[in-house]
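BUG: 3D viewer hangs when loading the predicted structure for this chain

Environment: internal workstation, default settings.
Expected: structure renders.
Actual: progress bar stalls at 90%.

Input used:
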Amino acid sequence: MKPTVTVIMPVYNVEKYVGFAIESIISQTFEDFKLLIIDDASTDHTLEVINQYHDKRIELIKNHTNIGIANSLNRGLSLANSPYIARMDGDDLCDPTRFEKQVKFLDEHPEYAIVSTPMLYFDENNIRGDVMYNIRQEQIKAYIEQNNAVSIKQLRALLPDVSL
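Structure tokens produced before the viewer hung:
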């Protein structure tokens, strides 16, 4: 059975943080997800840390050579088979209710195509600030038309159930 959410997490040389990132995902209150970790040919102990987790929701994909974050994300997108995609970095943490809140919001508001939970930027000494984004379909279309980052045709292929 396919999960409701596929979490795509490209990683490269994040041995110090990836365990914390994985813990924050597998501790979610919303449990119907697959964590798709794409290792981009790490040269440190990232793989050893990942291999310590034996959760059936985790799938590890290894790139034979370093192909970069964008190509690793695209590889993850090509393997995802769920209605929702979540993005995560190997050095990020997420609130335990992140997926619960995001899925609930998207289910209740089909006019939205992308959501994000509040983010806290921090370093070893302080918290720097927080931001929340909810993007309507019209905003995506306007942005793409102005910036030509992705064509509407490409976006329709990525989001076939969203009317653009």
